[in-house]
């Protein structure tokens, strides 16, 4: 794999973060191991907005963090959509949800959803019509919790629907079942994505 720096990132890149020693990451790692999921060493997921910022679902809700500042110490495996328009659409969708949370505080972290995602298989991706209905509620200000990898899959399902693609064709699992390890499994060999490289902690 190629080592990437911030300047190499593109909008919509999916950033899979190696679990750190934080309590939350240890908890996620342990839960994924107990559930028998592969790639349990991954503890978080985010979407690149551009070459500087990523957007992610954290304890404070949907946030935007600078990859060379706050997230400088994080290591990532980076997956890139083959369709650049889909990637830009995902980055724009993530930014819209970030803006909604900043103005309304309605998209908080879904700790219970993160716990439930460990059990019960992968579920089914929502249809484009179901995504439109959910988006109407979110855009109207209705509260909705997200955990990190759920946010990534939700955003890509949204972007796919807006691009005239089936959400199922991008990710076949339900966003509610998308743990970081499950997301990684769905990215490996996914015809819509390519493994772009990795980012080393402290090297940006």
List the helices and strands and how they pair.
Layout: E1 14-18, H1 23-34, E2 42-48, E3 53-58, E4 61-66, E5 76-81, H2 84-104, H3 111-116, H4 128-139, H5 148-162, H6 167-170, H7 180-187, E6 193-199
Antiparallel strand pairs: 1-2, 1-5, 2-3, 3-4, 5-6
Helix pairs in contact: 2-5, 4-5
CATH architectural type:
Alpha-Beta Complex
Mean pLDDT over the full residue set: 93
When the domains are counted, the total is: 1
Note the total helix count.
7
CATH class: Alpha Beta
Indicate the low-confidence ranges by residue numbers. none
Largest sheet: 6 strands, antiparallel
By helix and strand content, what is the structural category?
Answer: alpha+beta
The strand count comes to 6
Shape: globular
The neighbouring-strand order within the major sheet is: 4-3-2-1-5-6
End-to-end Cα distance? 16 Å
What does the radius of gyration come to? 15 Å
Assign a percent range to the helix content.
25-40%
Order of helices and strands: EHEEEEHHHHHHE
What would the CATH topology be?
Answer: endopeptidase fold (from Nostoc punctiforme)
Strand content: 15-25%
């Amino acid at each position: 794999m190629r080592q990437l720096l911030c300047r190499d990132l593109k909008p919509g890149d999916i950033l899979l973060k190696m679990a750190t020693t934080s309590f939350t990451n240890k908890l996620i790692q342990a839960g994924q191991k107990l559930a028998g999921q592969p790639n349990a060493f991954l503890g978080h997921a985010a979407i690149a907005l551009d070459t500087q910022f990523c957007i992610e679902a954290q304890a404070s809700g949907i946030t935007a963090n600078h990859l060379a500042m706050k997230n400088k110490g994080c290591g990532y495996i980076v997956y890139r959509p083959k369709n650049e328009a889909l990637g830009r659409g995902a980055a724009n969708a993530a930014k819209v949800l970030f803006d909604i949370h900043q103005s309304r505080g309605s998209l908080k972290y879904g700790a219970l959803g993160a716990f439930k995602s460990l059990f019960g298989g992968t579920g089914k991706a929502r249809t484009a019509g179901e995504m439109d209905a959910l988006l109407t509620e979110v855009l109207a200000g209705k509260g909705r919790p997200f955990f990190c990898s759920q946010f990534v899959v939700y955003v890509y399902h949204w972007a796919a629907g807006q691009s005239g693609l089936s959400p199922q064709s991008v990710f076949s699992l339900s966003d509610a079942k998308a743990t970081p390890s499950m997301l990684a499994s769905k990215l490996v060999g996914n015809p819509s994505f390519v493994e772009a490289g990795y980012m080393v902690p402290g090297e940006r």
